[in-house]
């Protein structure tokens, strides 16, 4: 963006230089069939020589075509690579974007304020047609920011956290209640939960639901520990829980994802405790990891790939003008495998 | 891109309508400090009303600022979510992009021809400043396409596959030779390799190196199986290898990634075979998974996160005009853990 008064090159100049119609230039830049390779090359060559590029915003408005969808994730880069959840979520989003020749603009941010500035710049700079917002917190500043901008978004989070934004969400409270109820039905009275990052809204919802379920079932020996979702943090939390004196040691542990449950299984083995003989373990999300361990891990199964696909489809609806809505996806369901059993008496 | 002769709106019109200088509009759209919130809002409001957006290409050229880097991956969406490699690689790329306020434009493609068209459209449409190309094959059409376009790229692949493009690569042949040599030194004579997708260049390099190493060591009982890198395929391959009659059954298996080795460990357990007593397993890449199993998995350790970061840094060099180069990253090194031992006699 220079401030010197250079004359602006238009599509007409490009067409004239390439010796074709403006429609042909449009076809070439929209990557559509109907032109010979030689003609396309001539058009692109002319555009390069003149320094012309289509106005992406105008292109997007005139053809109602959605090219790029934004996603900012607020996690340290190192941690992102370790969590199966995000890659499965992204792969589900991509499965829908690919069908529509659309790309994902992905960015890691350090905090939610940085994301607010980024979404603002992406939208005003016409770099995205809409965005997916994840990891909601209480009083999330992205809610008023997206409302003020008129940015088409899908908020991945419980409606209690996402204000007037269209939301796609999982009923975590019901799933936690089912998990605790199942372990209690097996006979467990000392049940622990290794939870995710305490600042996240969905973690708070699960924490409250776990306390409530334990209270309702009259389970006094319920404990919860917060982590950062990493395998290492899950291992540390499990080691600490299983190091308690025998009468206080939990006989069942629920995890907030699957990588922490895999780590927990390894810690039990390292401490000479049998699974499920001495301690039952219940994972969450249920990627292929849960079926690759020995014993296999019982889990609250959540189709994360399908969840990502639902989010992407809902965003296309928002971009094309559908009104705001709240879309629950199927609640995670209990999939019992080899890691849960009644406690030894 | 309409063909009706609408007059083109310029930055001057936006400045006039907002009652500010062109420099102020530039500051606002480049997301730079120095303007009050009210002024910024007025500028964006004026730009929206007039339907104006900065020419991203001009902005990028005038400020030498790199905003977006492209990455297309040719894998089924479902598989992408299951392989730790790509998420760790992407997280390494993002760790460098984030430092420079840059985003990653990510797209899944069905085949390499689709990627050629996509990179062409991204570059000519000025949507990216450069791209990362991965998963090279023999006679890869992306090499001449990138050369012809003048697209700044980093090719992640062995120089024998990437032509004149700047490459960042791992010496897979040396690493395979070390892996086979180590297992042979332990006393193994029936060694199998569960490899990746046969069409990929780096798989061919590993396959040839495995055969060569076995020949050089006089190991007759060497076998190789190709897979799609998924845990399920790794489990099937392992089940098939371990179902051979005892005298033919491999006593050691090398895997092309870690998720397949985890799956292999589970299959050995399911078949009642001890690891490493009955069969030694050696993983590749070495994400945290290898330290979470029991026994822990010996691996050819490769810092995939650091590899992604190196690739991103090299791409910034290419974009800012560094000449072509070939950049080997550290060769994967043997990290012995609990899953390898001498064979039972």
UniProtKB/TrEMBL annotation, chains A, B:
Q: Record's superkingdom?
A: Bacteria
What residue spans carry the region label Disordered? 322-345
Signal sequence bounds: none
Q: Which keywords does the record carry?
A: DNA-binding, Transcription, Transcription regulation
Give this protein's Gene Ontology molecular function annotations: DNA-binding transcription factor activity; transcription cis-regulatory region binding
Give all residue intervals belonging to the HTH lacI-type domain.
Answer: 9-63
Q: Does the keyword Transcription regulation apply?
A: yes
**Recorded coiled-coil stretches:** none
- Which Pfam families does this UniProt record tie to the protein? LacI, Peripla_BP_3
SMART domains, per the entry: HTH_LACI
Name of this protein: LacI family transcriptional regulator
Q: Which organism is it from?
A: Streptomyces montanus
Q: Could you read off the lineage of the organism from its UniProt record?
A: Bacteria, Bacillati, Actinomycetota, Actinomycetes, Kitasatosporales
